[in-house]
Amino acid sequence: MEEDVKIRILHLLNCAEAFFLRYYDIIDALHLDSETLTACLNSLESEYHLIVTDKNGVHLKNPIDFLDEKIIYKSTKTSCRVKVMDCVDSTNTFMLKNIDKFTDGDTLIAELQTKGRGRRGDIWFSGVGKQITFSLMKSFKTFESLEGLSIGIGVAIAKAIEEYSLRNVFIKWPNDIYYDDAKIGGILIETVPYKGIYKVVIGIGVDVYDEDFKDLKSRCGAIFSKKPEDFSRNALCATIIDKVNEVCAQYMHNDREEVMQYFGQHNLLLGRKVRVENEQGSYYGTALGISNKGELLLNVGDLTIMSFSSGHISFID
Q1: How far apart are CA 156 and CA 153, in angstroms?
Q2: 0.90 exceeded by the pTM?
């Protein structure tokens, strides 16, 4: 697949002296024909803006903070499998298609997603070396223990980010992460009944370094404008994995007090006028908080409070 070849080219350049390689060096190392190399380099230069080519060869513009499954695994508290794939259509889709091959706690990470998915059929934009996109599989005995899990996962991500001395991290019900008023992350949870239990695929996407979000720029952002010293995506990824496992353990034991308290302090919607859209219609009111089941509580006037288990939220103030 051509996208895989592009990632392999970038890996070579990232390890090369002065981040430069001659054309024939790449052809020999990856056993490519000139036509494939040209197509890949054109894409990396004109679409991804990661390289510069000239008559001498290929220059990598900036070092890439690649993900490394060995580093991530050693940095986590888990004993479960951690796998990094250079390229996949969607980590959630891949895991769901191979659900019988994944066990509790296994994590599948993608350097590049070509068809990343969000809620409501949205597309998750994925670049190279800029985001963290992965799916983690957890097994739950009862469906009731899953209620409001997206809130717990949001709390886990926010806590992980705050461990790097970052503040102003908020959670937008039901599944978005915000930093400094811009969306930097999202969650997609999909459940499959499996041999008397529920296998839950938890998809997470976090924008770590600034990216060209094109028409999404007004509402999307990243944690950092560029890579800080002494920071890596591997470290943050490992921290998120650990926090997600901790929250899932709390939900399995019906212990949500800590999650609810943290969410209450980082609730982006609290006190704001919003519109909730779901299959039943559109509703306007003031967001009050969430129920113990993770439902949004909305004051729609005349002392009437409605609860929502799902829906699309937009601000009206």
Answers
A1: 5
A2: yes
